[in-house]
Design goal:
60% of the residues lie in helices and 7% in strands. It has 15 helices and four strands. The protein has helices at 9-22, 24-38, 42-48, 60-72, 110-115, 118-133, 157-182, 185-197, 208-218, 222-231, 235-246, 249-254, 263-277, 287-305, 312-323; strands at residues 52-53, 79-84, 91-97, 102-109. Strands 1-2-4-3 form a four-stranded mixed β-sheet, with helices on both faces. α8 runs antiparallel to α11. It is globular, with a radius of gyration of 22 Å. The two termini are 36 Å apart.
Length: 327
């Protein structure tokens, strides 16, 4: 089963673009080697902070879920899952490169283990394993370690815009892996909603169909949809595009461990997904805003044309101004 085929093409395209335009391989490889030499030990820090490794002896139930999840995804290798004491439902994936081996670490909170059903936990674990599968963790080396800096990343402004766009798209890829691990859209959606909103069935009627209808209604109001997706990490959108994947003939094949779907079927799914993902673009949608963008652009071109010599710095300043408002 080739899970690389179902990686969302928008995720892969943005990564390819960043690697092509900003020499990311050199930056990331250097950072990985530096981390090996510094022997920064995130794994040991987890243990010092009170986390513990979920072994077969300590937690047979969770260990069994982890084993079954790996088997469903046909994954080999060693993945360590740690439990963190927390009353919030959450999880993360972390790669720790070391001289002797690379540690693939999944952290999951005690609240998630206590409050989620087995299939919901499988979705969470599958989602995090998906980040390893698509090597998303390598991109974290681009995040600016200086918290006082204005930039989120070490990239120039245009590159940072692509990175922030990609960071949302990559969740679509890993949601697909989580859905395959869990095998059921309803359980996957419930796990996603419980994680996002911190509520269980005691306080929230997790009527997925009702929520999806609200999302469909939002599409008739592009401005509201754009604001929603810009301020929140794509939760409504992720739910919608995961449903499209679940209802596709591709999911029916992959969940059985097969990869016989055609490129035509895959492209049709990605075209539908792109239509929804396009709503997160920072782009003017009202006629007046569109006219303002065209006016600013035309004026910028006009000013540039009056100069006999155009300096790179001048172009950079124009780009920095425009990219704050438009994609």
């Amino acid at each position: 089963m080739d899970l690389q085929r179902i990686r969302y093409r928008g995720d892969k395209a943005d990564v390819d673009l960043l690697f092509k335009d900003y020499n990311l391989e050199g930056i990331i490889s250097t950072s990985e080697e530096r981390q090996k030499m510094e022997e920064s030990n995130f794994r040991n820090q987890l243990l010092k902070d009170g986390a513990f490794l979920l072994s077969k002896q300590i937690s047979p139930r969770i260990f069994s879920i982890i084993t079954e999840t790996k088997e469903k995804l046909d994954l080999e290798g060693e993945y360590e899952v740690f439990c963190l004491n927390s009353n919030t439902i959450n999880a993360f994936a972390y790669v720790q490169p070391a001289a002797e081996k690379i540690f693939f670490i999944v952290g999951i909170t005690s609240a998630a283990l206590e409050e989620l059903e087995d299939l919901e936990i499988q979705f969470i674990l599958g989602h995090e394993l998906g980040h390893f599968l698509f090597e998303h963790n390598r991109m974290n080396y681009l995040i600016n370690p200086n918290k006082n800096s204005q930039g989120v990343t070490l990239l120039p402004s245009m590159g940072e815009s692509i990175f922030l766009r990609w960071r949302k798209k990559c969740e679509i890829s890993t949601d697909r892996i989580g859905l395959i691990a869990c095998g059921d859209f309803e359980n996957a959606a419930r796990a996603m909603l419980k994680t996002a909103y911190g509520l269980t069935g005691k306080n929230l009627n997790l009527d997925v169909d009702s929520l999806l209808q609200q999302i469909d209604a939002l599409k008739e109001e592009p401005e509201a949809l754009e604001v929603n997706y810009r301020s929140h990490p794509l939760m409504p959108l992720r739910l919608k595009v995961m449903q499209m994947f679940a209802e596709s003939p591709i999911f029916a094949q992959v969940v059985k461990g097969k990869s016989h779907f055609s490129d035509k079927e895959l492209n049709e799914l990605e075209d539908q997904t792109d239509q929804w993902v396009n709503w997160i673009k920072r782009y003017p949608r009202r006629p007046l805003d569109l006219a303002a963008m065209q006016l600013v652009t035309a004026a910028g071109i006009k000013l540039v044309m009056t100069e006999a010599v155009i300096m790179d710095e001048e172009i950079k300043v124009i780009i920095q101004i425009l990219h704050k408002y438009f994609t």
